Structures are given as structure tokens and as C-alpha cells.
Amino acid sequence: MSDSIEVANPATGEPIATYEGWSPERIEAAVERAHAASRTWALVPVPERAARAARLARTLREHKDRLAPLVVAEMGKPVGEAEGEVEKSAVTADYYARHGAGILADERVEVDGAEAWVAYEPAGLVLAVMPWNFPVWQVMRFAIPSLVAGNGVLLKHAPNVTGSALAVQDLFVEAGFPDHLVTALVVAEPDVPETTARLIEDDRIAAVTLTGSNRAGAAVGSAAGRAAKKSVLELGGSDAFVVLDDADIEAAAAAAVKARFTNSGQSCVCAKRFIVDASAADAFTSAFVAGVQALRAGDPRERDTQVGPLARDDLRAAIQRQVDESVAAGARLLTGGKPLPGAGYFYQPTVLADTGPGMPAFDEETFGPLAAVAVAHGDEEAVRLANAGAYGLGLSVWTADAGRGIALARRITSGAAFINAVVASDPRLPFGGTKRSGYGRELAAAGVREFTNTRTYWVGT
Question: How far is CA 171 from the centre of its chain?
Fold first, then answer.
């Protein structure tokens, strides 16, 4: 236990920081302090909690120039996107500052002979196991509504973004939240499974949320089930981007480039499978490939960079395997398909054509700059191909007839459906998946209520 964590810059491969993993005794002390802080925080009136969220929004914006470069250095996100991540977090804090109290207000219920209502009360201390791909936003997306709901947060962030985890913890304190209410644990990679399982079993932990891989989700979900604790899992995605025969091809292709290669393709809600009607396939593919080839890959600190490195070298190797095995199974490589030369974990933006079920690029989650194009002969086959994967997070449908797009979307299983728009999360709308993309919801009213005790009151008269 307590091995060190070495954080490397993925743009260069060079180490940038070393952190000592915490011992079991230090973790125990941190949990005890966090638990005590959460019990006190639960007694704070909701409007006061919401006011802290408003101050957090201001603090995030004030520290954007410090947070964004840290995200760039630790996981390679292009600087403009890193700044956008901080701003999106601030927007979410603003949303819950304005609406949190209303969402959590008691709901009166008319019953004969009694006064009755439903209350949304704090659950307690919530363990959050978070990924590296959005080091600030992923934490804020869960933590802001959870704190407004009256809970405490015990954060187990990905080791390769340990600096971001500690910076986020300090940010909450600076914004006026009590010390230890948000606690970032520093856990070295070999100790993560054992530490996470032990924390889930701990009676001081009320619930757990995880954003990450299916393997990690299975472990956390099963541990939470054994402990009879609430869990929310936001897992992988292999979103379908469906282009129908009447779609605006140029608009769809331009949106497809953005949908796939944002965050260098390292996002659960990036579109990954591009299912195009046969009548539009040639025109769409031509425009899409041209857009991909025009992307600027390079130093994520530079403002004209659109595609940065992958966060780790093993992730780049995984993309290469998916490309090689898909081509061996019959896919056609249209552009890219290799690591970029030089230092760092860069990979060429890549497009495969003639993909379909049975190929890794179509069946698996591709977490990097790799797009898979498949041809559908009519709407029925488009629906079949979109439903052919194990995941069900987001869906994007492109058509001149919005009603047709909605009708088609209703036949495809996903947590969200966007018509003539790129899938994105928004604090006003619930976010989450179906199938192997997980369960539970974040954001909006659903997100703030996920980690509350929905309690019934009945007073006889």
C-alpha cells in the first residue's frame, strides 16, 4: 500500500509530478473527517447550500487560467476545450444555485384525513470514483448537485489526474464549502480495487457513483449491491450517429467531425459508429474524411490544436489493436491508422469504412480518434445497426424531417436522443445510459435527487 503515483504529460511522455499514495491509516482519518463534515452539512438549509454553489461558479471562473493548464498537462486536452470544461462546470453551478432549492422543496400530496408530503433529504457521504477524461467536469457534474442536496463527497479520482483532483478539492474550500466536505483521496493504482471495495462496505459511506469502464462498473455495482447501497454507474458508450437519406449531408458531415473528435475522441458520448443510408454514403464519407484530414493535431497548449494526444500510451495501443483487427475483418482504412511520429501519445485521426457487427471498431467502445462508418440500406437496417451494440448512452439522428427522426429514435435504445444535433450533456436535462452504458441519472432534477432519501411524511389530523 501507499505506492507512489507518477503523473506524466501525455504530449511528451515526460513525468511532471509524483504523489505518495495514502496509507490505510491516512485514508481512515480522511473518511472520518469527511463523514463528520457531511453530517454537519446536512443540517444547513438548502438555500444556503445553493448560495455556496453560486460562489463556486464565480470561483471556477476566477481560476480558469490555473485549472485549464493543469488539465492540459495531465491528460492532454486541447487548451480551448479545457477552458470550456471549466466554464461548463461554472454553468452547472449557476443552474443549481438558481434551481436547487426548488427541486428539493417538499412536495405536498392531497390525502383524506391527513397532511402528507414528500421530502428529499440528504443521503450522507457519497463515494465518487471518477475518470481522467474530464478531470474537472466529471467531478463537478456529480459533486455540485450532490452537495446542494446536502451530502458530502469522497472523491477517488483517476491517478493520472491527481493534481486536478487536489485542485478541485481546494476550489470547493475557497468557494466557502466546509473543510473536508469534499475530500480527494490519493490512491495508487495497485491499491484502487481493494480500497474502493473497502470504502463501499464502510457504514459511513451512504452511496457510490462511478464514471468509467464496464469492468470498473461491474466491480463497483456488485460491491454496492452486496452492501445494499445506492449506486449510479455511467459507463462506456458507442453512440450511433445515423444519417438518413434526406439529411443535409454537408451539415451532418461537419457535425460528425466534431461529434467524434472532441477531446481527441476520449469521451463516452462521442459519436463512434456512423450509420449512413446507402444513398448518402458516398457524399457523406467524402465530406467526413475531408473534415477529418483537415483536423490539426499537435501540442495541446496551442490554441489552434484540435486533436491532442491520448492520455496514456496503453490507450493508444488499444486503438491500434482495434484498427488492425477491424481491417483484418474487412474494414477499409480511409485515413489515419497509425501513431503520429515523435514524442507523446499521439494517434492519427482515423476513419474506417465498411464496418459492421463483428468488428472491434463497431462492437467495442473506441476511446480515441477512430471513427467507424457503416452503410444502411433503408431505415429498418439503420435501426438494426444502431441497436446492434452493447451500449446505450447517446444517439444522434440527421434528417430533413424532425418527426421522422424522432420516430426512428424511439426504436433505438439510448439514454438520450438528439435530432440534427450533436449529443451533449446539459445541466437542465438528465444524463445517463441504458444497457451496458450503466444506470441512474446525473444533472437536472433527477441528478440532484439521485442521492437523497425520498422520504414520505404523513401527519394524521
Answer: 20
- 386's enclosing H/E stretch is helix 379-386
List the catalytic residues.
234, 268
pLDDT higher than 60, residue 2: no
CA angle 236, 237, 242 (to 5 degrees): 175
What is the reported pTM? 0.97
Give CA–CA dist 438/131, Å, rounded. Answer: 15
Placement of cell 483537415 in the chain: 294
pLDDT tens for each residue of 426-449: 999 999 999 999 999 999 999 999
Question: Rounded distance, CA 158 to CA 311, Å?
Answer: 11
d(CA 11, CA 302): 12
Question: Which residue has cell 478531470?
Answer: 135
Q: What is the DSSP letter of 398?
A: E
Q: Residues of 218-236 as b/e, b for ≥16 C-beta within 10 angstroms? A: ebbbebbeebebbbbbbbb
What dihedral angle (degrees, nearest 10) is formed by the CA atoms of 394, 398, 400, 404?
Answer: -50
Q: Are 334 and 351 in contact (CB under 8 A)?
A: yes
Residues contacting residue 234 through CB under 8 Å, at least 6 positions apart: 209, 210, 211, 212, 268, 431, 432, 433, 437, 438, 440, 442
